[in-house]
Design brief:
Blueprint (H helix, E strand, L loop, with lengths): L2 H10 L1 H36 L9 E2 L10 H6 L4 E2 L1 H28 L15 H14 L1
């Protein structure tokens, strides 16, 4: 079998196609969640806390001779920064995404029909019974 045929069989299998679709939808869904967190949730949280912009929460770890105040400017200047605000935003993003995926999987499992229960296997016939059957069959001959 040629390498091209093997690749074609692999690419057309259901699992590979499902994975590809999942990755594409996941990427698009991730952008939606990023927008929800960055554009809707974090501004509300910042407003409740006191007009904080989480993306600009940081601690300067090096010298800041020009007294730069924006995170982007400080990073561009190469000054080491502990940017915990960005981390908080990404953490909220992750928690929301994980919760949404949890709810989706829970709903999918609820909608999926339960697999029929397997019939219990017949118990093995004891060896003494097998031996008696063999004797009976030999006597019939």
């Amino acid at each position: 079998m040629s390498m091209l045929q093997e690749f074609k069989e692999f690419a057309v299998k259901g699992n590979a196609m499902d994975l590809a679709v999942g990755v594409i939808i996941g990427g698009a869904f991730g952008k939606i969640v990023d927008s929800i967190v960055g554009d809707l949730i974090m501004p509300l949280v910042g407003r409740v806390i006191g007009n904080l912009d989480f993306s600009n929460l940081f601690v300067v770890l090096g010298d800041n001779p020009n007294k730069l105040v924006a995170l982007a400017e400080i990073k561009k200047a190469g000054i080491p920064v502990f940017a915990y605000g960005s981390f908080l935003t990404i953490l909220v993003n992750f928690v929301i995404l994980a919760f949404i995926i949890f709810i989706m999987i829970k709903q999918m499992n609820r909608l999926r029909p339960a697999a029929p229960a397997a019939e219990p296997a017949a118990p093995e016939t004891p060896e003494d019974v097998l031996l008696l059957r063999e004797i009976r069959d030999s006597l019939k001959k």
